[in-house]
Design goal:
Layout lengths: L15 H16 L12 H11 L4 H19 L7 H9 L2 E6 L5 E6 L9 H18 L9 E6 L10 H14 L4 E8 L3 H9 L5 H6 E5 L1
Helix pairs in contact: 1-3, 2-3, 5-6
């Protein structure tokens, strides 16, 4: 059964439950003497919804842990810049780029794995993903109108033994945890029947909602 997920968080009326969640969360932060960073304020409702779905028995404390982890992750991972030689090279090769929008005006991110140099590390691939996503949040998303995107993950011409299961799952997990409710759908475009076999193994590491977001198209 497909899970119904809220698509718009900004400039929309909050339900009584959502207002209560935010109030309780702020009270918990005050009790724990944790000051909510300014940049995190717009993301609080997304974090609360994420933890409400994933940890229904203890969503409030899990939300605080999640928010703190987001802050620490950003301190370690940022800043990112296209002046970074390695990152600039991947962008120049067209390994990942934005192109147009879908019928609902969601931005489309193209990931061309065949253009990634073999020496590309998982960490560099993650940097590329986050850089492109941050760029989209600033220039392509429209708060209250379009707040999610679609990813076309092109694995054609990629040998089966090089199929990046870890990169695929890591990308989904990173976007889910650091940018909750921003990924509407990920299409995996492939030309091999065996990709489905690999996917049947990989999906056990993803949640039901994450699996729902990923669709396969064989060409």
């Amino acid at each position: 059964k497909e899970v119904c997920i809220r698509q718009i968080f900004f400039h929309m009326p909050l339900s009584e439950d959502e207002q209560l969640w935010l109030s309780d969360f702020r009270a918990l932060c005050a009790e724990k003497k944790w000051i909510i960073p300014y940049f995190l304020e717009p993301h609080l409702l997304r974090v609360l919804w994420f933890c409400k779905r994933k940890y229904p028995d203890d969503p409030l404390n899990k939300s605080l842990e999640h928010a703190q982890q987001m802050v620490e992750w950003r301190r370690e991972f940022y800043p990112l810049s296209d002046k970074d030689p390695e990152l600039a090279e991947l962008l120049k090769l067209g390994a990942m780029y934005w192109v147009g929008r879908d019928p609902s005006l969601r931005p489309l991110l193209i990931v061309r794995l065949s253009r990634l140099p073999k020496a590309t590390t998982p960490e560099l691939f993650k940097k590329l993903t986050i850089f492109c996503f941050e760029w989209a949040l600033r220039f392509l998303m429209v708060p209250g109108v379009v707040e999610t995107c679609v990813v076309l993950f092109d694995v054609r011409a990629v040998p089966l033994h090089q199929f990046p299961v870890s990169a695929l799952t890591d990308m989904v997990n990173t976007l889910t945890k650091q940018f909750p409710f921003r990924l509407h759908r990920m299409w995996i475009i492939n030309d091999s029947f065996f990709v489905q076999t690999v996917w049947s193994i990989a999906k056990q590491f993803l949640t039901e909602v994450q699996q729902q977001k990923m669709k396969f198209f064989r060409q």
